[in-house]
Design brief:
Blueprint lengths: L3 H11 L6 E3 L4 H6 L3 H9 L3 E3 L8 H11 L13 H4 L2 H22 L4 H12 L6 H10 L14
Antiparallel strand pairs: 1-2
Helix pairs in contact: 1-3, 6-7
């Protein structure tokens, strides 16, 4: 039975594409007899003609890749688009380093591990780029005798 016309009418009524219109195979004779929109509406109400659900794209593969990237995979040279500085700007790295060093210095001054003058001296050294990171600064403080060897860098909250 040719029910192209009925499917077209049903698609307009259901506000979907022709491919999403489902017709019950056992009732094809009845569908073929439906000529008017009213007939097609009646068939839709009696579930002889239905609208198939929309089919979306599966996100499973995307979730898997996202998980892999979170673990640090898929970040080799073949994946990279921007230059090193475009991916993580050197300014951001500098800010991150400075903030951790200055936070550590404030903590040491507040808790009484270092005096105000030492704080100032090392603050300016940090600003000048003397230290690689927080640990390096603590190492310098110990080497210059401003800190005991038992000072733990885990004390900062």
């Amino acid at each position: 039975m040719d029910v192209k016309y009925q499917k077209k009418l049903a698609a307009e009524i259901l506000k979907c594409g022709v491919n999403r219109v489902w017709v019950d195979d056992t009732m094809l004779d009845e569908v073929a007899e439906a000529i008017t929109r009213e007939d097609v509406r009646r068939l839709i109400n009696s579930d002889v003609i239905k609208k198939k659900p929309e089919r979306g794209n599966s996100r499973g593969r995307h979730r898997y890749l996202k998980e892999q990237r979170r673990k640090g995979r898929r970040k080799g040279h073949g994946t990279r688009k921007g230059k090193k500085n475009a991916r993580t700007p050197s300014k951001e790295l500098w800010m991150k380093k400075m903030r951790s060093i200055r936070r550590e210095l404030r903590h040491m001054r507040k808790e009484g591990f270092i005096e105000k003058g030492v704080y100032r001296k090392f603050y300016l050294k940090a600003k000048g780029g003397t230290f690689k990171d927080r640990t390096d600064m603590i190492f310098h403080l110990k080497m210059e005798g401003y800190l005991d060897d038992d000072y733990s860098k885990l004390e900062v909250k």
